Amino acid sequence: MEEQQMMAVAEAILFIAGDPVPVRSIAEVLDIDVDTAERLMEKMAEAYASQHRGLQLIRINDAYQLVTRPEYGEYIRRFTGATKEQSLSRACLETLAIIAYNQPVTKADIEQLRGVKCDHAIAVLLEKNLIREVGRLDAPGKPKLYGTTELFLKSFGLSSIDDLPPLKPQQAT
């Protein structure tokens, strides 16, 4: 199968899936190795970007997904009648940042870093599917460990957690 046809098949799979599709799944369907599938998907992503289409191909960890370009969000909201997305409170953003940079992390660790209770912020972030329980700490009480989700990565335009900007060291006051 030629490259253009493989891209068309991958595009159809991504369109039907809706959710991120692991590159290994694309490789299996196309009967190619994962490295070749990876190069194919990157070439496809570049093609979408260079053609300034309404869709873009994004990478999330080791998977790819077709999504609409953020700059067309207002038009999509108008078409669907959806209301503008609600932004997160400062407390939720602080909690989310702590989880993102320290995952897996317990509620107690978050509260120690923030200096305040974070029950509500965690509940909101769980409800919005930006964080999830990733396990339990092997300690008395077996506290829950939290980490970020794929939706977090998509929402903040990250391919993986490694793409988070480096933290700046705090200066003494």
Automatic annotation (TrEMBL):
Gene Ontology CC annotations of this record: cytoplasm
Entry-linked InterPro entries: ScpB_csome_segregation, WH-like_DNA-bd_sf, WH_DNA-bd_sf
Coiled coil ranges: none
Subcellular location: Cytoplasm
GO biological process, one term: cell division
Any matching Pfam family: SMC_ScpB
Main location: cytoplasm
Keywords associated with the record: Cell cycle, Cell division, Chromosome partition, Cytoplasm
Similarity section: Belongs to the ScpB family.
Record-linked PANTHER family: SEGREGATION AND CONDENSATION PROTEIN B
Functional summary from the UniProt entry: Participates in chromosomal partition during cell division. May act via the formation of a condensin-like complex containing Smc and ScpA that pull DNA away from mid-cell into both cell halves.
Subunit relationships: Homodimer. Homodimerization may be required to stabilize the binding of ScpA to the Smc head domains. Component of a cohesin-like complex composed of ScpA, ScpB and the Smc homodimer, in which ScpA and ScpB bind to the head domain of Smc. The presence of the three proteins is required for the association of the complex with DNA.
Protein name: Segregation and condensation protein B
Native species: Caldicoprobacter faecalis
